[in-house]
Amino acid sequence: MASPQKKLQGLVAATITPMTENGEINFSVIGQYVDYLVKEQGVKNIFVNGTTGEGLSLSISERRLVAEEWVTRGKNKLDQVVIHVGALSLKESQELAQHAAEIGADGIAVIAPFFLKPWTKDVLINFLKEVAAAAPALPFYYYHIPALTGVKIRAEELLNGIQDKIPTFQGLKFSDTDLLDFGQCVDQNRQQQFAFLFGVDEQLLSALVMGATGAVGSTYNYLGKKTNQMLEAFERKDFSLALNYQFCIQRFINFVVKLGFGVSQTKAIMTLVSGIPMGPPRLPLQKASREFTENAEAKLKSLDFLSFTGLKDGNLEACS
């Protein structure tokens, strides 16, 4: 298990939960999935049971089993396995946090409860504090995703003095487009060794300029290699090359967003790119259409994101 000093950084894939055609979890492909992330995408950190993993659509027992499988299969292969343990019920969230600690996860993350919502910073911190206390040896991350939770408490405000209340607090998954809020999180916590993980893949370069230390996202499942090239260019201060990579990634994301892009479509794209069957999503989500998958495949090929032999068409859009 990671010590709190081991900082979570770089790319973190928000893992998909593979399912069979009848909607049961397909545990049998998770080992193959781990190898694919490490060998093909160069991604060695994962974020399990989050939005992309349909965590809130799974039962508590399913979430426990999924977490166990990722930790087991990732042993000696992955650097860090962070488990999202957020739930509407404090008791369930605590149970999942305790379980994550027992199975040897490297950290836990929590979204704000979003049915009966916390309306002030203090109330939200009280909730998070109780969850963190259920796994006192694990690094704790807050998962800020206001568009889905409806909880609009600014992350900058939440982080102010948070370690006094939650000593295991190690950082933030920031899934919002408010770069003012994100920048102030970084600026006002420079003395802390927090992980500032950005969660909007198509804007990652902007967040890196603002001081992001890493990123959590669904596209790193299949665009991890390309995004890692952007991170390397940024590290070398080759900003024009980094921008080329970001624009290239944006071309694909912009294209699929116009077609309707969500968890269901991510599952379809990952099946296509990796060859590992991710299956359909669970209701209320609907399976991606064949038309979507065909369009996405054509776009991936035109951008040279698929290295299928003989299918490169030399399109000028292709990324260098």
Describe this structure in words.
Pathway: Amino-sugar metabolism; N-acetylneuraminate degradation. GO terms for molecular function: identical protein binding; N-acetylneuraminate lyase activity. It is an enzyme of class 4 (lyase). This protein is α/β, with parallel strands linked by helices and 320 residues long. The chain has a single domain, classed as TIM Barrel (Alpha-Beta Barrel). The chain has helices spanning 30-41, 60-74, 90-103, 121-133, 146-149, 155-159, 162-165, 179-187, 204-209, 224-235, 239-259, 263-274, 290-302, and strands spanning 10-14, 45-48, 80-84, 107-111, 140-144, 169-174, 195-198, 214-217. Strand 6, helix 8 (179-187) and strand 7 form a beta-alpha-beta unit.
Question: What name is given to the CATH topology?
Answer: TIM Barrel
Gross morphology is globular
Number of domains: 1
- What order do the SSEs take from the amino end to the carboxyl end, as H and E? EHEHEHEHEHHHEHEHEHHHH
Q: Main β-sheet, in a few words?
A: 8 strands, parallel, barrel
Number of helices: 13
Overall pLDDT metric: 94
Return the CATH class.
Alpha Beta
- Could you estimate the helical fraction of the residues in percent? 40-55%
Strand order of the largest sheet: 1-2-3-4-5-6-7-8
User: Would you identify the CATH H-level superfamily?
Assistant: Aldolase class I
Compute the separation of the termini in Å: 38 Å
Oligomer: single chain
Q: Which helices and strands, and how do they pair?
A:
Layout: E1 10-14, H1 30-41, E2 45-48, H2 60-74, E3 80-84, H3 90-103, E4 107-111, H4 121-133, E5 140-144, H5 146-149, H6 155-159, H7 162-165, E6 169-174, H8 179-187, E7 195-198, H9 204-209, E8 214-217, H10 224-235, H11 239-259, H12 263-274, H13 290-302
Parallel strand pairs: 1-2, 1-8, 2-3, 3-4, 4-5, 5-6, 6-7, 7-8
Helix pairs in contact: 2-3, 3-4, 10-11, 11-13, 12-13
